[in-house]
Amino acid sequence: MVVRAMLFACMIAAMVMQTAVPASAGGPGDTPPSCLVPNPPGGATALRGTVAVDVQDAGTTANTNVDFILRLERGGALAFFRASVNMQVFATSNENILCTLLKDSGSQGAIDLRAAILSAFGLPTTYHFYLVDKSLSKAEIQGVSNQWLCNDTYTPPSPLASPPAGCQAPARAASMADVLIYVAK
């Protein structure tokens, strides 16, 4: 009986530890996401919505053009944003990709996107963007399998090892997720 109670306590501790662990890295060479924080800063404004990401050359390990479309909402106000940023996505976590867009990239597209988001929701231009480990949810699996964008082709929900016939070269890929972004000083 004591052994069963100890085993039960260990299982609960393991479950609590797993839920407290921050978002995991996307692969070798991934760095911790720069805008990922344990808790939103005090007085942070929450922006909820979705993000769609289209990778121009899904097979490359180098930088590639990445198109972002964000649909964000705050207090009933809805706005759409779009930017194209040249960045590395191979072996990078989804959180790191989003942090690159919202904080790290010096690309004019990323800078203009950040300014447009702040302006659209009436937030000071000095505010910064933050993610928590639950900021991205319902995300498609990052990578190139089963995310191919092909002309006049339906892509089934089961993973594909390679793009279906009719895909462009280089192969494009896309992913989507629900997003919760915090904005604060």
Can you count the helices?
A: 3
Mean pLDDT comes to 79
- Measured by DSSP, the beta-strand proportion falls in 25-35%
Structural category: alpha+beta
Radius of gyration based on Cα positions? 19 Å
Count of DSSP strands: 7
Low-confidence residue ranges = 1-25
H/E order of the elements?
A: HEEEHHEEEE
Q: Can you summarize the main beta sheet?
A: 7 strands, antiparallel
N-to-C span: 53 Å
How many domains make up the 3D coordinates? 1
- Form type: elongated
Helix content: 10-25%
Compact overview of the structure:
The chain is an alpha+beta fold. The protein has helices spanning 2-20, 94-104, 108-120; strands at residues 45-55, 64-74, 77-87, 128-130, 136-137, 148-150, 167-184.
What features would you describe in this structure?
The protein is of the alpha+beta class. The protein has one domain. The chain has three helices and seven strands, in the order αβββααββββ. Strands 1, 2, 3, 4, 5, 6 and 7 form a seven-stranded antiparallel beta sheet that branches. It is elongated. The N terminus is likely disordered.
